[in-house]
């Protein structure tokens, strides 16, 4: 059986079995990447890269999305000309039950504490 041709617009993602805890924690250790993940979690659906208004350059934004994708935190797919991003919540919850929710809760508490300071 032959696999279908891979499009130049297909983006590499780790399989669920390839996702490593240290890679996920590294990806989520950056405030901009955590901000992306928090926003995706709050919406609960896919968002395009252009939806995010981050206070960094476009190339840095691209780097953050790549780190999140390559660590297994995000799934990125092209829909037309838009690159759509979605959390791999089911994969992360299956591998590390409660981790994502705990980190998102802690990040929310920290943001509220820092906004109040």
From TrEMBL:
Q: Name one Pfam family in it.
A: HTH_20
**Molecular function terms, GO-annotated:** DNA binding; DNA-binding transcription factor activity
Domain of life where this protein originates? Bacteria
Q: Gene3D superfamilies attached here?
A: Winged helix-like DNA-binding domain superfamily/Winged helix DNA-binding domain
Q: What is this protein called?
A: ArsR family transcriptional regulator
User: CDD domains recorded for this chain?
Assistant: HTH_ARSR
What lineage is on file?
A: Bacteria, Bacillati, Actinomycetota, Actinomycetes, Kitasatosporales
Every HTH arsR-type domain range: 13-107
Q: Which InterPro entries match?
A: ArsR-like_HTH (IPR011991), HTH_ArsR_DNA-bd_dom (IPR001845), HTH_MetalResp_TranReg (IPR051081), WH-like_DNA-bd_sf (IPR036388), WH_DNA-bd_sf (IPR036390)
Which keywords, in A-to-Z order, does the entry hold? DNA-binding, Transcription, Transcription regulation
């Amino acid at each position: 059986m032959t696999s279908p041709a891979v499009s130049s617009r297909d983006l590499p993602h780790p399989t669920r079995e390839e996702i490593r805890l240290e890679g996920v924690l590294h990806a989520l250790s950056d405030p901009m990447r955590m901000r992306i993940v928090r926003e995706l979690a709050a919406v609960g659906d896919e968002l395009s890269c252009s939806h995010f208004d981050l206070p960094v350059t476009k190339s840095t934004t691209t780097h953050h999305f790549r780190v999140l994708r390559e660590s297994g935190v995000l799934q990125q797919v092209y829909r037309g000309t838009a690159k759509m991003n979605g959390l791999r919540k089911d994969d992360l919850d299956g591998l590390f039950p409660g981790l994502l929710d705990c980190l998102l809760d802690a990040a929310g508490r920290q943001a509220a504490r820092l906004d109040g300071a």
